[in-house]
Design brief:
heterodimer; A: 176 residues; 2 domains; five-stranded mixed β-sheet; B: 226 residues; Porin; eight-stranded antiparallel beta barrel; 54% strand; elongated
Chain lengths: 176, 226
């Protein structure tokens, strides 16, 4: 007559321990530092556009045949060669209030090099314990030489780890 | 103003309480003739110390007290302390914290007899934690332009969250209770601690997450009187 409650209690203990072990396995599998899944570098997205002629009012995206962007970093410049593209992703320096990028439209041709100088305010922010801190910027102005570049229009001043906004429109000379 | 997420969690909490009370009232009316003793049980969580052995980033100790007076409802108070020492290459700080949770557990099934103290349970909690975080040092890693460094001044932080819990409790020997509780925690004031949310907030876990899951395994002793 007393077996049923004892058995019931035993099954309860067994079920509890088995479930506990499974759940503890899940908890114990956590890494000490989680994987950072958030972009840490702020992306400055640039689009190349061009008017079809001097009198045209409509600008269209312009593919640069073989662009090379060179970050004038210290101790040495760092170059990135792109394929044919009209959109580029750059980054800004988190250790200075301005930085320079050099741009050639075609690494294979005899194209002049344009210099773009970015002026901005910078700050840091906490992303997560897995990622640490990141930098973000507010663009003030951009100056450039005029070999291939006609003008530059800032469309979005806030430069963060959000990769979607198009921050700059760089107008290439209609004669390009 | 309360955020939409906060309102959502408060609605879940209120709904759970209403369902719990409704079921308790039903159970109470079914057992009006049964005399169930009062019980206070006092327990300690053995999972957190076990997980703390090789983990300096999250160490803690948790206690619980619950009180039973009828209707298969237990009023619960839980508390504890915790600490973390974060020593990453790009981030370092210390955090010490303590917490208090208040709420209730509801046994899912009616007891078959007055001295049946085991069973499956569900519960809700409202909880708060105080965190004392040291001055933090960080480095923003940038292989192109160079690393930049900074500090965040020490701060006193408060975390508030609600929990939905489920678990099992078994009386393995007279007055000795074992049981686990799985917890889903929803942080209600994440915006006020996001300047540098501590890696471990006692009672909650990772404060840089709006939702956290946790597990406790309690060993408890029960005091009873009729």
């Amino acid at each position: 007559m007393t077996r049923k409650p004892v058995l019931g209690r035993l099954w309860g203990v067994v079920a509890s321990v088995v479930t506990l072990v499974l759940l503890m396995g899940v908890v114990a599998c956590k890494q000490e530092r989680g994987t950072c899944l958030t972009p840490k570098i702020a992306s400055l997205n640039v689009v190349m556009v061009r008017f079809a002629s001097d009198t045209s009012r409509t600008a269209t995206d312009t593919v640069l045949p073989n662009a090379v962007w060179i970050a004038q970093a210290t101790p040495m410049p760092v170059a990135t060669q792109y394929g044919a593209s009209s959109a580029f992703t750059l980054s800004l320096s988190g250790v200075a209030d301005s930085c320079n990028w050099l741009m050639t439209t075609d690494s294979l041709g005899k194209q002049s090099v344009d210099t773009l100088r970015f002026y901005y305010k910078r700050s840091t922010y906490f992303i997560s314990n897995a990622c640490g801190f990141g930098s973000q910027f507010v663009l003030d102005s951009v100056r450039s030489t005029r070999h291939n570049i006609d003008s530059i229009h800032i469309q979005e001043t806030s430069v963060t780890n959000n990769v979607k906004p198009k921050h700059l429109k760089v107008f290439i000379h209609p004669s390009f | 103003m309360l955020s939409p997420n906060t309102l959502k969690y408060l609605f879940i909490l209120a709904s759970s309480l209403l369902v719990g009370w409704a079921q308790a009232a039903e159970a109470d009316s079914a057992h009006k003739s049964t005399v169930v003793p009062h019980q206070i049980s006092v327990g300690v969580d053995v999972v957190r110390p076990a997980l703390s052995i090789n983990n300096t980033t999250a160490q803690g100790l948790e206690f619980m007290v619950d009180y039973y007076r009828g209707r298969e409802l237990y009023w619960v108070a839980e508390g504890g302390v915790g600490s973390s020492a974060v020593r990453y290459t790009d981030l370092s700080y210390d955090a010490n914290s303590y917490f208090l949770r208040l709420g209730m557990n509801k046994m899912l099934f009616q007891r078959s007899k007055p001295n049946d103290w085991g069973g499956a349970l569900m519960g809700v909690r409202l909880a708060a934690s105080h965190v004392q975080r040291s001055r933090a040092q960080y480095t923003v890693l940038d292989s192109l332009w160079g690393n930049s460094q900074g500090t965040v001044e020490k701060a006193q932080l408060y975390g508030v969250w609600m929990e939905l819990n489920g678990g099992v409790r078994v009386e393995v020997a007279p007055r000795i209770l074992l049981g686990w509780t799985a917890r889903a925690k929803f942080l209600l004031n994440n915006k006020s601690i996001n300047e540098l949310a501590p890696l471990y907030m006692a009672g909650y876990g990772r404060a840089d997450k709006n939702v956290a899951f946790d597990l406790n395994f309690y060993v408890a002793y029960a005091f009873r009187r009729k």
